What does this fold into?
Amino acid sequence: MRMRGERLRVFSGTAHQRLAQDVCAFMGVPLGAASLQRFPDGELDLKVECDVRGADVFVIQPTCPPVHDNLFELLSFGDCLRRASADRITAVIPYFGYARSDRKDEGRVPINAKLVANMLVSAGYHRVVTVDLHAAQIQGFLDIPVDHLYARPVMIERVRQLGAQNIKVVSPDIGGTKLARAYAKNLGCDLAIIDKRRISGEQTVIENIIGEVDGHDVLLVDDMVSTGGSIVDAARIVKEKGANRVFLTATHAVLAGNAVERLNSADVEKILFADTIPLPDERLQRLEVCSMAQLLARAIDRIHRSESVSKLFESES
Ligand code: R5P
It folds into this structure.
């Protein structure tokens, strides 16, 4: 007789199959067979090709651009697995799209992160695993358990090898201070903050730098790079204020519009991105990818065994 949770199954949507394959390789399990096709009108035609009855199932799918296609695949997987009698269904969302729509900061706007959270639960998911949420409080939008993983331990390992001298961590905006402070603490260095004002989705204005960067190698830390406007402007301003070398690190490389061209033209030594989103490796110069596959594999393994996920970060604070 099969016991509850005995069988583990990992599936992937089409958003980031390489990451899902790497996760499975670390775990020593095959990627679950599923067919993802399109009907002639563009609607999704999904079929899970193996038995999932009673299984503990994980679906790996970042909701990166094209966000609606990727999100719908994830929702459709949830519905499909629930109807196929999976025991527990976990959405592994390395990049959680719409996370910046987390509050009503003006009248008559939606809170799309909450809408996405509602849809995940309605689709049949029992649990979410994600990495560096833009706003940690989004966990509260989901009335199911959320395991929030941090890319920082993996990124920091690589940052230490960059050979930066007299390093100062800089946050490109006030909202990113908490993340940047955690990097500064790990590196044992000080923090400076850029006072940025957003004018539109594409345009920001830098008002001021709080802290000194003159004579320092600067590590710019952000949770995501979308148009590249924030981080490239920040790189320029710290150079103007006397920084020596500038390094960029961010977890989620959304890279919308002409972000790649912007980053290629920036005066920076190295760009470290996590692989929560597929990266245009060949087009982006000075890029180094820090893979989240092992971290995700270890988290999935721990969840499957009902072991603590926080333990993965215990040496961090
Ligand atoms: C802002 O709150 C975020 O942390 C990022 O700084 C921002 O979303 C990046 O967007 P962009 O690359 O378009 O400036």
